[in-house]
Amino acid sequence: xxxxxxxxxxxxxxxxxxxxxxxxxxxxxxxxxxxxxxxxxxxxxxxxxxxxxxxxxxxxxxxxxxxxxxxxxxxxxxxxxxxxxxxxxxxxxxxxxxxxxxxxxxxxxxxxxx
Length: 114
What we know:
The protein has strands spanning 3-7, 10-13, 18-25, 34-39, 46-51, 57-59, 67-72, 77-82, 91-98, 102-104, 108-113. It has 114 residues and is an all-beta fold. The strands form 2 sheets. Strands 2, 4, 5, 6, 9, 10 and 11 form a 7-stranded mixed sheet that branches. A 4-stranded antiparallel sheet has the order 1-3-8-7, with no helix packed on it. Strand 9 (91-98) and strand 10 (102-104) form a beta hairpin. It is globular.
């Protein structure tokens, strides 16, 4: 059974940094897309950053210049380095991976205080 486990969330002051990790286990292979999404209270889940198997990245406008997504294929892990955090970045962050199927993590809370 494939599982995605996120870590690295927490409480940080505005201007601070966090690094999120998401590791997949349970027999997942040939992961194409890996991405990070977030959902703030009362809002829809939105894409923050994504990375394809070839390493092509894309970012939400709100994340450009502050966040960096990367992946370690040997470890089936995706990372999100978040710098210069703002209170509006507060949300539950979810990782997503896709092969021929779609998988989601359980989410990790990121809270940025002003």
